[in-house]
Write a structure and sequence with these properties.
membrane, globular, transmembrane helix, two-stranded antiparallel sheet
Amino acid sequence: MDVVGLTPIIPLVFAFALPLFSVVVGGNRKIIQAYALLGTGLTLISTFKLFQLTYSSSLPIVYTFGKWRAPIGIVYEVDRLSSLIALVTAVLMFLIAIYSYRYLEREKGLEWYYTLYLGLESGLLGVLLTGDAFNLFVMIEVTSIAAYALVMFYRDRKDSVLAGLKYALIGAVGTTMYFLALGVFYGTFGTVNFADLSEKLHSSGNVVLASSVALVLATWAFLIKATIFPNHFWLPEAHPAAPSPISAILSGLVVNVGVYAMIRFLYTLYSGLSWIIGWLSFAIIILGAISSIFGALMMNTQRDVKRLVAYSTIMHMGYLLMAVGVGTQLGLQAALFHLINHAIAKALLFLAVGVFIHVAGSRNIDDLAGLGRKMPITTFSLAIATLSLVGIPPLNVFFSKLLLFNALLEKSFFLALVIAVTSVIALVAYMRVLYTLWLGKPREDLDVKESISMSMICLILALICIAIGLIAPIVLEKLINPAVIQAMDYETYVRAALP
């Protein structure tokens, strides 16, 4: 099972070697691009192999570093939940790497961009594959540091530096809170291995206070990473400042770190412990509802198209939080399916918006007027992304929103109503963008030429959105349901890791 340990190492090795490799090839941009594609491509192959292994095994796959078994050594424990999200991550990182080359054709420092990019991919995969709470902290830090630097890629622009510093500051607060949670875990149970923690939590009814404090600290840290209100403010600042491909990763993948970690804690470590998670689930659902409403309303106040899409992310993260907080199998099915669908559709939306920004040199919606008629492939892709995110059938997000609606309806009619109302509000904001792009009067000073390489990546993602929607029942039966059933079985997770 060496593929488990190898998967996050591949992009990390490529990242460390890239600065030296760049010197050797004299900074040749095409060779650097090919090198980055090789790294992300090999990572995709390794991740796909891991995905196959987990779905053909009844138990999670465990990889021990240095042959030291849990709970003494650090282990990677990969189940269907983590391997499925990892596969989506690897696919998107590969496609966005292709898109990035043309988008950054006028920028210097391509070798540093891809160095951080590969480091970010390593961190994201490490978060998903680890079976150790402290190693999760390390991988969150790797992910965060790379993301901070990529937000500040345009380092000669004041807004980029300020946005990156703001992101780093709130991110540091989150990781500090999680580190405090680790201290409580280790001080109480003498371990930070997920499986060992889960076993001891389920047999230690006399440490309610310590367990509750640790969970609250960890959860709040994850809420920051997932950009949930009132910890959302870094995201609308980061998106306008960052290159569009990085915006696609931030909203499509990086924010998923917080949601995934929350699922792992609530459904694996604390599974069934209603004496701890009952009251917390209520708070999570309320915060999710507030985030959804806030994000939808703020979308309609924006003139900057990237800020508009950023608030859409806050809205959808609220949906995910509500689904996770429900605490049922249907809720987790809805959360996982929506996490995947949102990652694909939101990455597509930022990449399509990025093509227009690349041509117009502006993020202002009015400055993009009429470009849609001259860039049909990109406009089609953007329309698919927006309609999908609103929940128009038969696109992919419609089916995950339908699951969300049903899961929340079991809890409360008013929670389900939040999904419906915010979707309508978001539709108004998206239609304003589409109307301006297609029917607005174009600027006469623009020489519009649609980039084939960037628009083709957008088209591929648009077709994926359509395809998932058309085969949604199969995706649910073959991929989502098996992952959810295994994720909710904490005893199997424990049995696979501990001797």
